[in-house]
Design goal:
The complex is a heterodimer of chains A (278) and B (315). By secondary structure, chain A is an all-alpha fold. Chain A is 77% helix and 0% strand. Classes of the chains: A mainly alpha (278), B mainly alpha (315).
Chain lengths: 278, 315
């Protein structure tokens, strides 16, 4: 409190003003999404709806437009998150608990993998998927998306596991428990919040992924919401902005809810930033 | 930030601690058993990550295509794809656009705005801080495609931005057509700043307040304190975040593809967009793969720099 209070108050006023201005800029595109979805005559411009209606949602909430794509998104994201978490927990255990010669090269490889631009890989990946007849294969794309999420997942999981004290495991070992038993009975229960954070992080990433399913899933009945919404935009987007906005909202709600859950219940916002940054 | 400066994992504890004499004999088998849990991840990474990278390098030396005679069996054509690319004005323009996009939206935009927001948040009113933070983070948490639609509507000639300009008596340009790069850069800043803001908020929280205060007592101005105290003390976070945002931005596809489709013409085709267009629009898989390979190499270089920054945590 070394500063005189008038200048401090002026400073606060200025920073609040700038913050508000930035906030308004960030809010405008989001507000359009919200208002257009309830507007019977939505345009591309942000405006207060003259006729509030739920009609846009009614039109969009049909099996072909919304429910099947959302179910596909769910299968894709759940499959990817489950596989990634299981494989990452397994990999993190020896990396965290044993000093082995493979640790260092493996961790460097993992870090290197987190930096690879996956977008850049999609052309060669497409060729490979064609060669192995995996285009339109749900298991194929789930495994691919798991592999691309693995580096960051292993890295986060190892960090979480490092903070689990080793004392309890020693007790289990003395009792003759195998590595797998120790892992599933002792370590995993102790790091449930960490596992939840990784799971949600991977799930949200897969849910929002557009480019990978856009390239690898060609049949409309297999496509997740991210891709079907783009097709909808291409076909009707120039006419029915209200429906596009409604569709976008329905598709976004699960992700927003998961984020709120993670940051409120798991304190995951900081855990995430902590695991990702250096 | 100290949360991830990892305590070294405790020394290996061996079940039923073997006697020193037996150690050497059981060594190989034990190491194998201990590294067994790594196998599933190694298999997945090898098949779905390493194989595409390797095949990308190989494919960039072939004339593989989606249709026509080359679709059946691709022939080895050496460096021809690369010669072709580097004599193609679209490709050279694309490199330039990618650099502009990286510097504009990641290095300057997201980092400066993210740092600024983190600093303003420190002195801002609690309610304003909460609201602005929520708005910034929401733009980041939204699925990419939804954010892209929202940005499209915002910058469209009939969209929000030009309507606001009209309100104050200005005629806004058709941003997506006349200034496509500016539009996608601003959109990506809007979309991505939250990440930098979160990282810098955590970094600034680690700068001890008394250092700031004693500098203020000694008469250091705000700018001086920023330059000589805050920035140097958060240097590590700045370096890491610069790398991370650069890597994320390097592979940005959806927001550009939805907003401009790389157009008009190829005026906003950054490298990921151009690779997609060459491969899937013009069926030039070989060319697309060559661009992909170049992108991978650039990403690899950034990754290595990033790993060097993180080195203390691995060792």
């Amino acid at each position: 409190m070394g500063m005189t209070s008038p200048s401090r108050r002026a400073m606060r006023g200025v920073s609040n003003g700038i913050l508000l201005l930035i906030g308004v800029c960030f809010a405008l595109p989001l507000l359009w999404l919200l208002l257009a979805s309830f507007d019977g005559a939505a345009t591309l411009t942000l405006k207060w709806p003259e006729h509030w209606t739920l009609g846009n949602f009614g039109k969009v909430l049909t099996p072909t437009l919304t429910f099947i794509p959302l179910a596909n998104s769910l299968i894709l994201s759940l499959g990817c998150a489950i596989i990634t978490v299981i494989v990452a927990v397994l990999a993190a255990y020896p990396l965290s608990r044993y000093k082995m010669r493979v640790n260092k090269p493996f961790l460097y490889g993992i870090l290197f993998g987190t930096g690879l631009p996956v977008t850049a890989m999609m052309v060669p990946v497409y060729s490979l998927f064609v060669a192995f007849n995996l285009i339109d294969s749900m298991p194929g794309i789930i495994l691919f998306m798991s592999a691309t999420s693995l580096p960051i997942a292993i890295w986060m999981m190892k960090n979480f596991m490092d903070s689990v004290p080793i004392v309890l495991e020693e007790a289990a070992w003395v009792d003759g428990a195998s590595m797998l038993t120790t892992l599933t009975r002792v370590v995993v229960p102790l790091m449930r919040p960490g596992i939840a954070v990784v799971f949600i992080f991977i799930f949200v990433g897969a849910w929002g992924n557009f480019f990978v399913p856009f390239v690898l899933l060609l049949s409309p009945e297999l496509q997740p919401a991210a891709v079907s919404i783009f097709a909808f935009f291409g076909q009707y987007g120039a006419v029915v902005y209200g429906q596009l906005a409604a569709f976008s909202l329905v598709y976004s709600v699960p992700v927003l809810a998961l984020y709120v859950f993670t940051s409120r219940v798991l304190g995951g916002g900081s855990a995430l930033a902590g695991a990702v940054k250096g | 930030m100290s949360s991830t400066v990892l305590a070294k994992p405790s020394p290996p504890v061996e079940p039923g601690a073997p006697k020193a004499g037996r150690k050497r004999k059981g060594g190989a088998g034990r190491t194998l058993a201990r590294s067994a849990p790594l196998i599933p991840s190694m298999v997945l990474l090898a098949v779905f990550l390493l194989a595409p990278v390797v095949s990308s390098f190989y494919g960039s030396f072939t004339d593989s295509a989606l249709t026509g005679s080359a679709a059946k069996g691709a022939t080895f054509i050496g460096l021809q794809n690369y010669f072709h690319l580097f004599s193609d004005p679209d490709f050279l323009q694309s490199i330039w656009l990618t650099v502009v996009f990286l510097i504009g939206s990641a290095i300057i935009g997201q980092n400066v705005l993210g740092y600024g927001l983190a600093m303003l948040m420190q002195s801002g009113n609690r309610i304003i801080r909460g609201v602005v933070g929520t708005l910034v983070v929401t733009s980041w948490v939204l699925p990419e495609i939804v954010a892209a639609f929202a940005a499209y509507a915002f910058f469209h000639a009939d969209g929000t931005l030009d309507s606001i300009l009209r309100l104050v008596g200005l005629t806004g340009p058709n941003w997506l057509y006349s200034f496509p790069m500016l539009a996608v850069i601003l959109a990506n800043i809007w979309r991505g700043t939250a990440f930098s803001m979160l990282v810098y908020t955590a970094a600034l929280a680690d700068v001890p307040e008394d250092v700031q205060e004693s500098a203020a007592m000694d008469g250091a101005s705000g700018v001086k304190r920023l330059r000589y105290i805050t920035l140097p003390m958060t240097r590590r976070s700045i370096n890491t975040n610069l790398m991370l945002t650069t890597l994320q931005t390097l592979s940005a596809f959806t927001i550009i593809y939805v907003m401009t489709g790389g157009g008009p013409g190829t005026k906003s085709s950054t490298l990921p967009i151009l690779a997609y267009q060459e491969a899937f629009k013009f069926s030039e898989i070989g060319l697309g793969t060559a661009i992909a390979t170049i992108l991978l190499l650039v990403g690899a270089v950034f990754s290595v720099i990033y790993i060097r920054a993180l080195r203390p945590e691995v060792d």
